[in-house]
Amino acid sequence: KKEIPSWVKNNAEWWADEQIPDSDFIYGIEYLIQNDVIVVPSTDVELEPSPTVPSWFKINAGLWTSGQIDDETFVNGLQYLIQIGLIQV
User: Fold this and answer.
1) Helices (H), strands (E): how many in the chain?
2) How far apart, in Å, are the Cα atoms of 60 and each of 12, 46, 47, 64, 68?
């Protein structure tokens, strides 16, 4: 199992605290997945992409940055965002 680099948590924390916009966070996550920095299991994508990040995921990102949820739980959320077409990989 590959660990997510700690600096990714900084980006997630800035995003959870509204210091960077959704688009910047999503673009960064897409780049990290495409370059195997974050490994997300293969996921089927729905036909109609979702236009917005679910509010629960931003809450999870904040919990992840403070160590209240683990990397696997965070990656499960990323997998869902891929599934709904919000993250393109």
Assistant:
1) 4, 0
2) 10, 22, 25, 6, 9
Q: Which of 63, 59, 64, 52 is nearest to 21 (CA)?
A: 52
What pLDDT shows up at residue 52?
Answer: 84
| 19, 62 contact by CB (below 8 A) | no
- pLDDT tens for 21-67 read 999 999 989 998 899 888 888 878 877 777 788 999 999 999 999 99
Residue 68 and residue 16: Cα distance in Å, rounded? 14
The yes-or-no verdict on residue 20 having pLDDT over 90 is yes
Sign of the torsion angle spanned by Cα atoms 35, 74, 8, 53: positive
Q: Is 7 helix (H, G, I), strand (E, B) or coil?
A: helix
